[in-house]
Every structure is written in structure tokens, then in C-alpha cells.
């Protein structure tokens, strides 16, 4: 169901259930969390999350949802997976092709960077069945696109295409090959990637964040100076 491969500095995590548009069952969620959170940020500083068969993910498998005995626990399970993605030490890039629906949108929202192909579409259709996305979507969506856009998107249940998603801020780029963005990011220093993610994800007060920013910069600067010194000394040998 969840396939993981290492390709140089990028760990590719694929939701592989194309016959169900990569819909996720409860057990699949734990497997997905382990695949993303288990990446070594030094060896594979970037995780590329994608779906198989021309779609990203339809979200929660509706057959599983219809038979839930503990719906609150299921929602909390999905929230833990989204948090594991957001808190992963590696940078997580969502490559969104085809449909992202419901929980698929919510898992993408937890990623650090969301990149769509021109074929991508996004929707939270649960409202039509009397449900809504409960894997952290009501928390992350307004933070990312703003309250007005979030309310319109979630309350209407309508599908938006890739260009509208980019205008909303739901994705940052629309490209033919989202993997190229993961490769671009992976070409940078792992320690700098990790520091930037930590700083941008920090939700402390401004003064605390600025102090941590200065401390992180000082640590990176020390390594930068060491690298220059080693390069110069190596050139004299």
C-alpha cells in the first residue's frame, strides 16, 4: 500500500492503491506516518510524497469510514499522521497529480511544500455527505490560504483546479514534473534545510523565534566558515 524507495538524497513515498484513487484505510495511515517520519535527514533530507496511478489521494477510504466503531479515534489517528508529516525532520514535498480529495488534501496541507501538475484538482467533498475533513484540515487550511478562502473551499465542497489552487496559496507551483522541485530542494545543504524548516514551523512568540533564528544562523555560519577553511587548506596541498 505504501511504497518507499531511496533515490539519492530524496526518499520517494508512494501511496499505491490506484484502484481506489489511493484512498487510505486506518492501517495505511500508520504505515504512511512511519514512511515519512523515518527518513534520515542527513542521507535523505527530502521526502517526496506522491500517489500512484495518476491521482494523489482520495483521502479516507469511504468503506472504512462507513463501518467505523470509533470515529473520534479515527480522526485523531489521521491527525497524528498529519502531525508526523509536519514534524518530520526531512523536508516533505507533496507532488500532487490528479485528484486530491478530503484527507488527501489534509495530508498535503501537512507537507512543507505542495507542488501540483496542471492535471491536479482539489476538493473537500465530505460536506455533501454531512461530514468534513478532520485530519487537521480545519486547523491548517485557514493558516495556509486564509480564513475567507478556507471557508469558501470547505463549505462549498467544490473542486478547484491547479491554477486556482496556486492563486489561493494551496500550492506554491504548478509544473509538469513536481519531482523536479523535490530534487531542486535536495540540492541544498541538509543542515540548512532542517534549520529553515524548524524556524518557519516554530509557533513560539516573536521574540523567542527571533532569538532561535539568530542561534541557528550562528551554528550554520560556524559550519560554513569551517567548510571554507577546509577548501582553502585542501587547495594548498
Automatic annotation (TrEMBL):
CDD domains named in the record: crotonase-like
PROSITE patterns reported for this sequence: ENOYL_COA_HYDRATASE (PS00166)
GO molecular function annotation: catalytic activity
Pfam families in the cross-refs: ECH_1 (PF00378)
Domain of life assignment: Archaea
Gene3D superfamilies, sorted: 2-enoyl-CoA Hydratase, Chain A, domain 1
Signal peptide range: none
Coiled coil: none
UniProt cross-references to InterPro entries, sorted A to Z: ClpP/crotonase-like_dom_sf, Enoyl-CoA_hyd/isom_CS, Enoyl-CoA_hydra/iso
PANTHER family: ENOYL-COA HYDRATASE, IP11341P-RELATED
Family, as annotated: Belongs to the enoyl-CoA hydratase/isomerase family.
The protein's name: Enoyl-CoA hydratase
Amino acid at each position: 500500500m505504501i511504497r518507499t524507495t531511496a533515490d539519492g538524497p530524496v526518499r520517494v513515498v508512494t501511496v499505491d492503491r490506484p484502484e481506489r484513487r489511493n484512498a487510505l484505510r486506518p492501517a495505511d495511515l500508520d504505515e504512511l506516518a512511519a514512511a515519512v517520519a523515518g527518513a534520515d535527514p542527513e542521507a535523505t533530507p527530502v521526502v517526496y510524497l506522491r500517489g500512484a496511478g495518476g491521482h494523489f489521494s482520495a483521502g479516507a477510504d469511504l468503506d472504512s469510514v462507513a463501518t467505523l466503531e470509533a470515529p473520534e479515534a479515527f480522526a485523531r489517528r489521521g491527525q497524528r499522521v498529519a502531525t508526523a508529516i509536519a514534524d518530520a525532520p526531512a523536508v516533505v514535498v507533496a507532488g500532487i497529480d490528479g485528484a486530491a480529495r478530503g484527507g488527501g488534501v489534509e495530508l498535503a496541507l501537512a507537507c512543507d511544500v505542495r507542488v501540483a501538475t496542471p492535471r491536479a484538482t482539489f476538493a473537500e467533498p465530505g460536506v455533501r455527505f454531512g461530514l468534513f475533513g478532520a485530519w487537521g484540515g480545519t486547523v491548517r487550511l485557514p493558516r495556509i490560504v486564509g480564513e475567507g478562502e478556507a471557508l469558501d473551499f470547505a463549505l462549498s465542497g467544490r473542486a478547484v483546479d491547479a491554477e486556482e489552487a496556486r492563486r489561493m496559496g494551496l500550492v506554491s507551483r504548478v509544473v509538469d514534473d513536481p519531482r523536479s522541485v523535490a530534487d531542486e530542494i535536495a540540492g541544498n545543504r541538509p543542515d540548512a534545510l532542517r534549520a529553515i524548516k524548524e524556524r518557519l514551523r516554530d509557533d513560539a512568540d516573536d521574540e523567542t523565534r527571533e532569538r532561535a533564528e539568530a542561534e541557528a544562523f550562528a551554528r550554520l555560519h560556524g559550519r560554513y566558515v569551517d567548510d571554507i577553511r577546509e577548501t582553502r587548506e585542501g587547495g594548498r596541498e
